[in-house]
Amino acid sequence: MPIGKGMDPIQGTNNSLAMALIAARYLGDAQQLSTAKAGMTLDMVKETGELVVQLIEGIGENIDLYA
Fold it and tell me: Is the pTM of this model over 0.85?
């Protein structure tokens, strides 16, 4: 290295940092997607449960009607 000149970057360091940044952003996006999917799944389970309750209540009303 010549005197008065700054240190040269280590070969590949800039690429490695860029790849690490891309990976970190991807993991953040993947986490948000996973959270959204979990929320949608919980909503679906809740709605399905409500439909099952309505169905059972309807069956109970029919039993009361014909009993």
Answer: no
